[in-house]
Amino acid sequence: MRSPAPRALLATASVAVALAAADTYVVVLALTDMMTGVGLGIDALQKATPIISGFLLGYIAVLPLIGRLADLVARQRILVACLAIFVVGSAVTALAVELPVLVSGRVLQGIGGGGLVPATLALVADLWPVGRRGVPLGVVGAVQELGSVLGPVLGAVVLAVSGWRTIFWLNAIAGVVLTGAVLLAGGQRPGRPRAVPLVVGVLALVVTGVALAAPQRLVTDVTLGVPFVPFGGSTSRLATPVGVVALVLVLAWLAVSARGWWAVLGRADLPGALLLAVALGSVVLTFAASDPEREVVGPLGLALLPLGALAFGAYLWRHRRVETPLVARGVVRGRARYALLVSACAGVALVAVVVDVPVLARLTLTSSQTEAALVLVRFLVAVPVGALLGGWSLRRLGDGVVSGVGLALAAVGLFVMSRWGDGALDHLSATVVLALVGLGIGLALAPVNNAALTAAPHEAHGVASALVVVARMVGMVVGLALLTAIGLHRYYATVAALPDQSDTKALVAAGVVQVQTVFAGAAVAALAGAAASTGLGLRPAVATPAQHGVFSAERAL
Fold first, then answer.
1. In this structure, are residues 209 and 105 in contact, taking their beta carbons and an 8 Å threshold?
2. pTM for this entry
3. Whether residue 292 has pLDDT greater than 70
4. What is d(CA 27, CA 34) in angstroms, rounded to the nearest whole number?
5. Which among 408, 431, 322, 351 has a CA at the least distance from the CA of 68?
6. Looking at residues 95-110, what average pLDDT do you find?
7. What is the C-alpha to C-alpha distance for residues 183 and 12, in angstroms, rounded to an integer?
8. What is the pLDDT, as a whole number, of residue 501?
9. Is-contact 183 3, C-beta < 8 A?
């Protein structure tokens, strides 16, 4: 069936991507309230790390599998499935009163939100031929970055009038609305579900929701409150009779619905997906959960990194031997290899600015965390503008030219930022430089996706898009950990050399040295990305019938 409005389907999917991107940053302001909501004090910040790393784990580790599934079944079905996972994750997060449940909800949000990206990028490849994908890819990139801008803002608005749980309930409502919009724009009614999985699934959702919510009227009732009494000395809402029933129903739903998805997972190379998930998850947990003030790779990393290397080696061994591997042969070659490298470098540059500009503002400009975060808006607004401009430029220029120029501009701006000191953010020139860096990084977004899609076979667009996103996210996670560790090393060396270590001004100056070091490292990464961009192709790509065949909206459905 052909979609009556294929571009409306892409537009709806792009809005969903923006919602997921907003959710990535929404915990920036809500984290302390979320900690309190699950019984953690402000002094237990390290224990709250899984709230952030859990989302990243779900976002990154499962992306290759979702990308592969988007190549095997209709893109619309993947979008709906990812939105459903996102909605469930948002509801679980909103109901959580204990850390494990909260982290589980964030993992589900990461899986659902992350999976929307490769499916949406693959939609672009379905609807536009080679040579005409620049603008729509730029739109997807711009909307995604716009979501990251609006996330903290919307979070602040909600927190001003309500609690942190409202943020995630609004996420769930928005996800339900977008699911309906995807089905409407795709022109398809959802298939008639089998009765048993549907009934068991609804029961699982209802009972799990009741167990997590633990309504006061039921809990305090002499008779109805018995199922909510925890076993032994536990305080967990799931360690109760109703919680056990909920978990059993979830497992029962997985069992009775397996016939509908197990065969597809088998075609997607589930063992290979698990190996790659272990490898990527080991990297995420090693660097996202480390404490840069003390270590780059802590005791957890000493076990996880060898495990990840072993899992990746096993995946490569399997990749060469199975008939249809998770990542189809030929996907990571030619321009695609350079696209992954450039995407990782852009991720390093992006995260350095997002994290350390507010740090510099707190050191030299204001003591208010909110005002410090607002300084970053000068950069964040420029990124989606650059994404749109980069996509438009691909009409006449090659991927390598647009990406190379953009990252070269970002490198210049970051080198200037590496010399910023006290009072630098007060000047108009700071706004110009931040906008230049944001514009430059934004310019690179559409070219890397375009190059990867052009290099990949038509039947592997989903997994190719997923790998580009994975490379960028890994660059952000690993790059931030390494650059922060190097910056802190210089900070401690500077402090140790001070004649008077109680001098407040001198300590602030040492903190500025740390930030300058991070910006300098990000500049090097951007420069490396600009150099690698030459491998993306200096001339606009041209479609060939043998390479991509017929383009239509039918593949999206």
1. no
2. 0.88
3. no
4. 8
5. 322
6. 91
7. 10
8. 66
9. no
Tokens of 113: 């939100």
401-422: per-residue pLDDT in tens? 999 999 999 999 999 999 998 8
Q: Which of 486, 515, 520, 473 is nearest to 345 (CA)?
A: 473
Residue 231: DSSP 8-state: S
Residue 414 contacts residue 163 (beta carbons within 8 Å): no
Max Cα–Cα distance, the chain, nearest Å: 76
DSSP annotation of 322 reads S
Using CA atoms, how far apart are residues 467 and 476, in angstroms rounded to an integer?
14
CB 246 within 8 A of CB 213: no
Using a CB cutoff of 8 Å and minimum separation of 24, what contacts does 302-309 make?
A: 307/278, 307/282, 308/278, 308/279, 308/280, 308/281, 308/282, 308/283, 309/279
CA 27 to chain centre: 13
Identify whether the C-beta of residue 469 lies closer than 8 Å to the C-beta of residue 114.
yes
pLDDT for position 359: 85
Q: Write down the H helix ranges in 62-163.
A: 63-72, 75-95, 99-127, 134-161
CB contact at 8 A, 151 and 24: yes
483 CB-near residues (< 8 Å, 6+ apart): 348, 352, 517, 518, 521, 522
Give the Å distances, CA to CA, from 553 to 6, 8, 123, 142, 179.
Answer: 6, 11, 8, 22, 18
Query: Could you tell me what percent of the chain has a pLDDT over 70?
Result: 90
Q: Which of 93, 87, 88, 83 is nearest to 166 (CA)?
A: 93
Helix, strand, coil in percent for the chain, rounding step 5: 80, 0, 20
CA distances from 34 to 24, 39, 96, 236 (A): 15, 9, 9, 17
CB distance 280 to 474 below 8 Å? yes
* R_g of the chain computed on alpha carbons: 24
Q: Given a cut of 70, is residue 155 above it in pLDDT?
A: yes
Backbone torsion region of residue 537, taken as left when φ is above 0, otherwise alpha when ψ lies between -120 and 50, otherwise beta: left
Higher pLDDT, 546 or 274: 274
Question: Do 31 and 51 touch, CB atoms closer than 8 A?
Answer: yes
> 436, 429, 446: which is closest to 414 by C-alpha?
436
Nearest to 352 by CA among 465, 478, 258: 478
pLDDT value at 541 more than 70 = no
Q: What is the DSSP annotation of 429-480? A: HHHHHHHHHHHHHHHTHHHHHHHHHHHS-GGGHHHHHHHHHHHHHHHHHHHH
| Residue 196 scores a pLDDT above 90 | no
Would you tell me how many other CB atoms lie within 10 Å of the CB of residue 28? 16
Task: Give the per-residue pLDDT at 187.
Answer: 64
Q: Could you give the CA distance from residue 57 to residue 348 in angstroms, rounded to a whole number?
A: 18
Across 336-363, average pLDDT: 91
Residue 208's Cβ-count burial label (10 Å; 0-12, 13-18, 19+) is: buried
What CA dihedral angle connects 17, 19, 25 and 27, to 10 degrees? -140
Tokens matching residue 256:
């009775």
Query: What CA–CA distance (Å, rounded) separates 77 from 250?
Result: 21
